[in-house]
Amino acid sequence: MEFLLLGSLAVRRTGTLLELGGPRQRAVLTMLLLHANEAVSVAQLTEAVWDSPPVSPESNLRTYVAGLRKVLGERLITRPGHGYQLVVEPGELDLDAFDQLVRAGEEALADNDTEAAAEKFAQALAKWHGVPTAELNAGPLLRAELTRLQERRLTAVERYAKAALELGRFDDVINRLRRESALHPLREELWAQLMLALDRSGRRGEALEAYATARKHVIEQVGVEPGARLRQLQQVILESRVPSPAALSAHRQLPMDIAEFTGRESELRRLCEPGPHSTVVISAIEGMAGVGKTKLAVRAAHQLVQRYPDVQLWADLHGFDADELPADPSAVLESFLRLLGVPGGQIPESLEERAALYRDRLSGKRALVLLDNAAGEDQVLPLLPGSATCMVLITSRRTLLRLDGVKSLFLDVFTPGEAVALLSRIAGEDRVHADREAAERIAELCGHLPIAVALAAKRLARRPQWTMLDMVAQLERGGGAGARGVFDLSYQALPDNQRRLFRLLGIHPGEDLTAESAAALAGLTAYEAGDLLETLLDEHLLQQHTPGRYGLHDLLRAYAVEQVTAAEPPPARAVARRRVLDWYVHTSWNAAQQLNPQRKLEIGTADPAVHPRAFADRDAALLWCDTERANLVAAIRDAAEHDLPEHSWALAQCLWDFFNLRKHWADWIDTHGVALAAARSVGDRSAEGRMLITLGIALREVRRHGEAIDCYQQALSIFRAIGDKSRQEPTLNNLGIVYMVQGRVDDALSCYEQAAELARELGNLHSEAVTLNNIGLLHADAGRFDVALARYLRALEIRQEIKDPYSEAILLNNIGEVYRGLLDFPEAVSYVDRALETFRAIGDLYGQAESLDNLGLALDGLGDRRGAEKCWLESVTLFEELGEPKADEVRGRL
């Protein structure tokens, strides 16, 4: 017999699942299994089964025991005067196996065999397949027992994470700890190890975001600050400003390998054969959709890691996604460069310069690059490293003839033997042996296509009462063959509400989705949508690479689009699309309010069925934007393509602070170009002007000054034509900034003066302060310090009235510079000190670096050379971390 306690309770006899009765009877069995081969008293069972026991619990317990005896037979014995005892033989109970593996892991740790320890702890955790309490009516004693059992599992998770961290296996640790910390947000050791894993893999910002999330949970649920370990760890990460040279070796971005990988042995050998030592090794796996190219590439990549240990990069190029444009090589290079430690501000704009920097960063590194779903050679060429120490694995549905030196491998469907082997691996070897002929027929009906065989096998695995012939009958009755027949079988077997959500997912923009966005799409609550998504995941119609985020295989996405088009009339599809875009717009608006509370945004009213996410603080808003970035970009395009232009430009204007903070210039320019075209398509002049302003800012940031000026001048003409003075003011201010950068001082001053006059006329104190600051900058640059000081001090008065700490800090720093120009060093130190304090309070690293440099200059003017040196050392460190060229200038002062 096989007793499964570590998840949904189950008992098998010779592979056949036994019927265990209702929730209370199952609670009795759970208690007996937790104390296998020991007597459990009636009093203990009573407290395990009921919160409020019946008048005569003994009678009820005898009924439950009798029911269990019908399936367990003589295994369940009565111990007169002691209660009941369940006899379990060695190797039958998964909990015993778990405990033995954990002990073996502890022994390996004691022997300093970290590799063996990690393996044993991983095997122990693999015994778990869910939450044991899910289907039980548990009383207080059983709840306590199960809590202790969960505690043992979490301890094993922490021991595994500790061992895996020592071995440098950061990706698996991060994925596991994200999931566990989300499920157990008050367990601080999980958060601590997640922070360590992120920091050691070079993702320092994410490590600090994990601390912020942990702190939020602890404060909200317990009302205290996190413990000393978490606080000290945060401080250590904050103080380790300069990453160590070894950080590069932690960039391991490969997707998870799958345990059920089957067959393809000769193909794996070919892919893993050593290549030439004089050039980059390039291998391309080619074949039809669903044939298993990605799974083979990922398996090969994991086997090749030892040969290429320094760096492993991965990108999905979306070459054949019906709902998404192929990935822009320039955007992929931006992502790779960020992973390789290049700050956003130092990433070049042109494709050629990015490719050159990428090749430079990988030069001499033993690096593996996995490029999945390539559309063609032109998409891949810029992503190829130049060093002979590197290897590239590519998957594509096309033959990539124009790649020099490529080793192509055509991947066909499974052989009959491989298809049956996969069925056996997933559905159970005993079931395949019982009727191999039927198993071969299932493989044949699936067209030997791996995705279809796997889906059929998983369907069998979840229905242990089915025989192989039952599955054959189901497939033949559907009349389909290959993937389509299996998809139909799974889809048609779903209840109506699950079918509806699945097909609506064909409308969802972007790469993946969450319960919240799916809820908006379907007009449900997030709780309802989450339940349905988990069911679809169980039915293997969805994938999940990250806890809480779901995706569709491209064949299943195409199938969902086909079903939604057939089953939902155009008005229903339009409503669903509007709802999900409403959710993205209004959630982005809530995020924007955290990122920049001064920002004035204009968005419409959301559908009443839509419940946008709110954010407790700036860190939470920024984390959401980072996570949803690809979907947000896709949503702007989706809105423009489906006659929802207002959603397109509203979402674009909500995101430009985020794009600016993270230096996502390409996303900023592309999305605002789409939104601008959407505004023009319906003749909305005001929206057109707003998009021209924000597009102009992005163009200015990447030094395309001529194009920026053209945008501002067009916007100014529009706002003057429609009489919108409130928009003329920021347009003039931004135009002045570009003129100032170009050295056109008179033109800049004219724009600033006009903007300031409009701000005063409109009573807009914030805008008046901004333009007064810019006017002050112009006069300070010209050496007119008295005039500049007057403008700055007036702007500071306004800032103190409207409480904008960021802008106030900039002003304080500027005032300090002017006092230096006037040789009043004590006043300079006073103002810059206040600026530095404010920048530190709001967490602005660039502002801190600038004000530290300025403070060093003021202290040097006072003759305090030691104080100046200290400021400049800290300023250099910050500028280097941010990738700012000004680090060299400050280093020169030292």
Automatic annotation (TrEMBL):
Keywords: DNA-binding, TPR repeat, Transcription, Transcription regulation. Residues 1-88 bind DNA. CDD domains: BTAD (cd15831). InterPro entries: AfsR-DnrI-RedD_regulator, BTAD, NB-ARC, OmpR/PhoB-type_DNA-bd, P-loop_NTPase, Sig_transdc_resp-reg_C-effctor, TPR-like_helical_dom_sf, TPR_rpt. It comes from the Bacteria. TPR repeats lie at residues 729-762, 769-802. This is Tetratricopeptide repeat protein. It comes from Lentzea indica.
